[in-house]
Design brief:
Strand order of the largest sheet: 1-2
Structural class: mainly alpha
Oligomer: single chain
Helix content: 25-40%
Distance between the termini: 33 Å
Strand content: 5-15%
Radius of gyration: 19 Å
């Protein structure tokens, strides 16, 4: 869907926050049992052409046969993201990738999902 939309000049934005209140979204869309929302997607013609957000290099996330931590790549990516945030936010955001993610792991993210999925008919083992 994203590739098709972008090939026609549309911009897209994924909305992962859909999972913050999946019951309300399920009710709104009248989703049947065994169906749940994973993400939303906004489509539209962009008013401007923003820079593409940098991503971790494939070598930092794709592991074959064993996991090897590549601290240097993470440090380099932190520098890349700090520059990206400063430029994109006109200096209003002074953080990097690692510091930006840290709060996500301080507490259990979306603790309501297990009960929600059981109510939708998914067995948890």
């Amino acid at each position: 869907m994203a590739i098709a939309a972008e090939s026609e000049g549309l911009g897209i934005c994924y909305i992962g926050g859909i999972r913050n209140n999946p019951q309300a979204i399920s009710d709104l869309l009248r989703l049947p049992a065994h169906v749940y929302p994973v993400f939303g997607m906004c489509l539209g013609y962009p008013a401007h052409d923003p820079d593409v957000k940098p991503r971790l290099p494939v070598e930092a996330i794709l592991k074959e046969d064993h996991y090897d931590e590549d601290h240097e790549q993470v440090v380099a990516f932190d520098d890349t993201m700090q520059c990206y945030y400063r430029e994109r936010r006109s200096g209003n955001k002074d953080t990097d990738w690692s510091r930006n993610l840290t709060p996500l792991f301080d507490t259990k993210l979306r603790p309501h999902m297990r009960d929600f999925l059981v109510e939708r008919g998914f067995e948890m083992k």
